[in-house]
């Protein structure tokens, strides 16, 4: 565990000044509102020079953040003011919707110019969501080699390794020595801009091993690469879904991985800096999907947000009507004892909350491959035990309160109904997502509607039904 | 965009066999249930040799998965059967709860032995959650150098860069040439097991630049490092929270980053393979927190799951009682027109769903620094427009159905109440998380309870109040 270091020599050079971003960023690394306001002010006063000077010191990722914070009209004004700062790096850091909006306002040749600067994966991302006509116009402006590479990438389905991979990589045959590889890299002009591993391939271009750069650097020149490389590497099939790719990178702590076609030949590589966005997206989207908010991107056009969300509200309307039918069946009881109407939402609400808790846990465990067929029964049993404990605690509280305010019998009825509903919620919270997963549906998407329907219906039914059965009303 | 490659020579060597994991893993890279069952069978028959043979071909990350899938007693049996496969890598891949459970059953000297194999960050993770007595016992077994390093790490607060960083790194003074650095790395025996960048430091050990290994490999020996290195690097203060660290890694697409103390001196490094777990955890935990499921880990002890969840159910009970009070105020109206009791949960439920949608979007945007003071007003206005569209659509559906089944006036009342409640939900769904964020609270934790309380109360109040105001009952 020792830190490796060469003896230092003391010398009096001053530190190079770090770009002074402190004026623009707050302590959480977000752009300060005052700074954003000053950029907007410059744009509104049509003072392009001042806008440029304000933005110039920013890191490309912060320029992207700035563009996202602005209104659409302001974005275009700013982009026009800082054309030479609008690098490929800025563009590839932009939110998808904001990028598409900006790209659509540029001429095809300008977009092609940006695409040529980028690695294939970023270039593909730049144009994949444009409409086919715009796409063709931009492709026509690219030089033939780049065009072929991008067209090839677009031939793979969206969200697969084939779309995400970069074609730029370093692959060498097995017979090289460490020294040969270093000489090769020193001579070669068109190495990828960033790479972390070298892939070793056989004569059919199939990967036989991978070699971290640090292993090359620490090894004498005369050692064969095959003695240094790791033979057992994780290969990503070109058609693999990005969610699956993200899980592999996490599980095996990968920095980069070889992508292979059906014939097992090396066709590209994936690097962790690109996968990090996917890991974050895939992990974060479950909360959005469970709530029925679709992609839930604040930059999504209002029309898209409306159509994604309204369908779940309408589904919810349907399930709420099921609950209403149950209440309607007990209409006479409610007329007789209005306390039932006052208390019934409590039973439904507690059940809904308990169901959402269990569902969130199950969906997350399914997404991270922790909940599989091997332990479903154990987890179901575990959740039932948690539900029993929760049910008894909450039932005691509401039961005693109801007994004091209304009547002991009604207290007993509501307590029993709460226990029944929380246990139902525990069961449904595991079973519904697991069933969706088994039939190949994303458990985050539709579980919520079903779980809520079950807990609402069971809440009203158990409470009102027990009240009638106990002769309280009806 | 060309792939760099040395001319290949054809030769007839056969491919090395990849460890045959196909028998154990399904197409989604999860352990097959039949395989897990066969391991359990071997354990139950006390056939340790067969258990060992079954597990031996697995990758350490898959051995960790296997242990997580087993029941606690089975885990200990398996660990005893495969002692020499229980490497530091397996241990550091284990879920926190499972790891603590397993570590507690081992003698301190065995744990110390595992810790010595690991990088500092993994060694710290191994013992940080143990109770202080166990911790001291293990530290006492470590050699003094490692003990000092781990004690230093434990002196930083949990979930900060100081806890997460590894002390192993390569730091060299500024005056070196590329060739000197390569020679140094070839000579040095105790380089870190994995590293991706070399840090260049001044005489006070403050970082002045960083150099990707690929830049070193492609550069002739006589070039000074200061000509190759990147001066403008992202430095992570040792006290920075892990969520913030994860955001920096994502935003600036970092592979590794230097960690500096208060004096700006280099004290450790963070690498992306460790940060990936944090990115996934931080992004995934919002769904769990919003549902009130706490950490929501399926391996969490039942007692912990109960205490995390029951407090939110009790809070929900409190908010449901607020809604009940509102209903109680309209008791006379309900007695007169039981249709009100039948329909009122619909209004509350739709509002709750709309509120959860907006809240999920806002919480995610806050977590990814996309929703800041600079655009709060714009996002609020955006969400209000989405709410208006949703409200009008859903109100039309339920309004017409109610008008047909009950009465036109009741249809008008419920439609108006739905619009009011969905708009309230849109407002609350943005405002509540933003307010929590402004006062320094995690918006995912408590927003749900408040948003639901607002939409439930507003749903009942608007619907019942309008019904009374329109003379339908009361």
From TrEMBL, chains A, B:
Residues 229-285 form the CBS domain. It comes from the Bacteria. Residues 8-28 have a biased composition (Basic and acidic residues). Keywords: CBS domain, Cell membrane, Magnesium, Membrane, Metal-binding, Transmembrane, Transmembrane helix, Transport. One of its GO terms (cellular component) is plasma membrane. Homodimer. This is Magnesium transporter MgtE. The gene is mgtE.
């Amino acid at each position: 565990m020792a830190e490796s270091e060469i003896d230092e020599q003391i010398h009096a050079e001053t530190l190079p000044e770090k770009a002074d971003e402190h004026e623009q960023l707050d302590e959480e690394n977000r752009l300060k509102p005052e700074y954003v306001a000053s950029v907007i002010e410059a744009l509104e006063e049509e003072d392009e020079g001042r806008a440029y000077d304000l933005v110039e010191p920013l890191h490309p990722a912060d320029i992207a953040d700035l563009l996202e914070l602005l209104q659409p009209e302001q974005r275009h004004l700013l982009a026009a003011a800082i054309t030479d700062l609008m690098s490929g790096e800025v563009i590839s850091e932009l939110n998808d919707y904001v990028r598409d909006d900006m790209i659509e306002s540029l001429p095809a040749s300008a977009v092609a110019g940006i695409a040529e600067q980028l690695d294939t994966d970023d270039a593909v991302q730049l144009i994949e969501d444009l409409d086919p006509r715009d796409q063709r116009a931009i492709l026509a402006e690219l030089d033939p080699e780049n065009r072929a590479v991008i067209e090839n990438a677009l031939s793979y389905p969206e969200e697969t390794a084939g779309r995400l991979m970069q074609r730029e990589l370093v692959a060498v045959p097995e017979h090289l020595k460490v020294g040969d590889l270093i000489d090769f890299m020193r001579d070669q002009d068109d190495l990828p801009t960033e790479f972390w591993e070298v892939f070793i391939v056989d004569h059919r271009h199939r990967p036989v091993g991978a070699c971290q750069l640090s292993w090359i650097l620490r090894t004498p020149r005369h050692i064969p690469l095959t003695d240094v490389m790791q033979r057992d590497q994780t290969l990503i099939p070109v058609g693999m879904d990005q969610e699956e790719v993200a899980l592999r990178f996490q599980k095996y702590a990968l920095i980069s991985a070889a992508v292979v076609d059906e014939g097992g030949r090396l066709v590209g590589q994936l690097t962790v800096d690109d996968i990090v966005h996917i890991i974050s997206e895939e992990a974060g989207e479950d909360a959005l999907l469970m709530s029925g908010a679709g992609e839930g991107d604040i930059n999504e056009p209002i029309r898209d947000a409306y159509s994604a969300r309204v369908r779940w509200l309408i589904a919810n309307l349907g399930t709420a009507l099921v609950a209403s039918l149950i209440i309607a069946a007990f209409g006479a009881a409610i007329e007789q004892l209005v306390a039932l109407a006052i208390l019934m939402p409590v039973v439904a609400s507690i059940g809904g909350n308990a169901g959402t808790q269990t569902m969130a846990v199950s969906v997350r465990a399914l997404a991270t491959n922790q909940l599989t067929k091997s332990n479903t029964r154990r987890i179901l049993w575990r959740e039932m035990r948690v539900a029993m404990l929760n049910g008894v605690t909450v039932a005691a509280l509401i039961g005693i309160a109801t007994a004091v305010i209304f009547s002991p019998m009604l207290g007993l009825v509501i307590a029993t109904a709460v226990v029944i509903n929380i246990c139902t919620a525990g069961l449904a919270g595991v079973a519904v997502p697991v069933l969706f997963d088994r039939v190949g549906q994303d458990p985050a998407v539709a579980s919520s509607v079903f779980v809520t329907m079950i807990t609402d219906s069971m809440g009203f039914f158990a409470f009102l039904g027990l009240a009638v059965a106990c002769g309280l009303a009806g």
